[in-house]
Amino acid sequence: MALTLITGASGFLGWHIARALEERGHATRLLLRPGSAVEGLRGEVVRGDLRDAASLGAAVVGCDAVFHAAADYRLWSRNPSDLYASNVDGTRNLMGAAWEAGVERFVYTSTVGCIGLPRGAPGDESTPVTLDEMTGHYKRSKFLAEEVALGEAKRGRPVVIVNPTAPVGDHDVKPTPTGKIILDFLRGDMPAYVDTGLNLIDVRDCAAGHLLAAERGAPGERYILGSENLTLREILERLALLCGLRAPAVRIPYPAAYAIGLISTGWAGLTGREPRAPLEGVRMARKKMWVSCDKARRELGFAPQPVGDALARAVTWFRENGYC
What is the CATH number of the domain that holds 210? Predict the structure, then answer.
């Protein structure tokens, strides 16, 4: 039976990719860092670190395909170099090991943050964008990692790139920045909102899109995996209906949000504790991150559902697992 390696299976999206593969009968191998744990998956666990190239050979040997979903996904870090080491160097290290092992298919998980956002219309895979337009170290590191993947594809390597939007649903263990919006709302820690927008997708649909990319995606191509373009206010109103809570009615002007982010991030730099309102996140919120996934629908047969059920699963999972 073909063997598939998944990185990031201890995280939100990677866990769902591994689960989707196992449900379809694939034999899986999970690359986890020393000390990391995962529940609810049957795959073989191997220990390694993306930053340590020598540790990756045993992970890829015997594998036909790799799903590289691991990333250092933080909007603030006291040591930004950590993000580049994991996201850029780690991607390069894993690809090098994969080619030596004869891997036949490599799906690289990028981010919607690497998609250009034109004025007045959703962005898509063809929208021009540059490194200078990337806000903060997370997006810059993911942009550079995507450039590594595209470069490998140009050299004839079997790399397909997917650009997920903002997944929501169950098993958001960390949680992700999008999950934190839901959690803050549930805890009553969101008295106001900013005028921004996100494209949300059910994490299960996002995982299914990864499998479609492996089956039908063209090497060197990028595919946006998204579903619904929503304002933050619309997201909070949906959560209010699900939870029986009141959505915040006060909109914070961007200059005020920027000042809050500046103070919060400055304090984090002094204390080492993660800021409640990372300045990088505030700067990202200045644009509505609305995109089109028509290319994935057309070329992959991608058919995401509305995100209502996923939001409900997220609320239930956070509540049942003691997050709020």
Answer: 3.40.50.720
